[in-house]
User: Which sequence fits this backbone?
């Protein structure tokens, strides 16, 4: 896949020479109510960032004309049930059914990768990292993500099993 990115809320200028992010910032839904620097992470602030991630992912998929995703490596420790799709590896979901699943993964309620026939992938990593790969250039989506306060960097997903 030619176009692969790491999309995060983390400014790359605040990384050390090894790529580690230096500031102490929230990294999880479970951080709501905790103090970071001089402010407390509110549920509202969390939702703004979560919505930015999800809308950025949808922007890339729309621009790349990806309409379906396959669930890969599903881990559902809480045995959560959803109406669509089946929560098992190999299930295919329409993009319209994916938003709730994206939220569940970001909130660490379940985990899986989203992929489509070597044309696209979306992987969420620990600490609020999102990796996306698409088969065509998506300049409008990169611009859109930046407008949402996110940083888009060329990067291959560490969760990718095939290159």
Assistant:
């Amino acid at each position: 896949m030619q176009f692969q990115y790491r999309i995060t809320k983390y400014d790359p200028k605040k990384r050390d020479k090894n790529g580690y992010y230096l500031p102490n910032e929230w990294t999880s839904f479970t951080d709501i109510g905790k103090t970071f620097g001089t402010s407390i992470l509110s549920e509202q602030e969390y939702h703004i960032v979560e919505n930015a991630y999800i809308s950025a992912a949808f922007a890339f998929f729309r621009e790349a004309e990806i309409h379906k995703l396959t669930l890969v490596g599903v881990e559902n420790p809480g045995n959560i049930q959803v109406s669509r799709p089946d929560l098992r590896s190999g299930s295919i979901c329409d993009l319209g059914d994916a938003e709730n699943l994206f939220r569940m993964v970001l909130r660490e309620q379940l985990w899986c990768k989203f992929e489509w026939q070597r044309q696209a992938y979306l992987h969420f990593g620990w600490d609020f990292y999102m990796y996306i790969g698409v088969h065509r250039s998506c300049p409008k989506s990169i611009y859109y993500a930046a407008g949402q306060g996110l940083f888009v960097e060329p990067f291959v997903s560490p969760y990718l099993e095939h290159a």
Observations:
- The CA atoms of residues 25 and 36 lie 6 Å apart.
- The helical segments are 43-63, 98-106, 139-147.
- Residues 43-63 form the longest helix (21 residues).
- The mean pLDDT is 94.
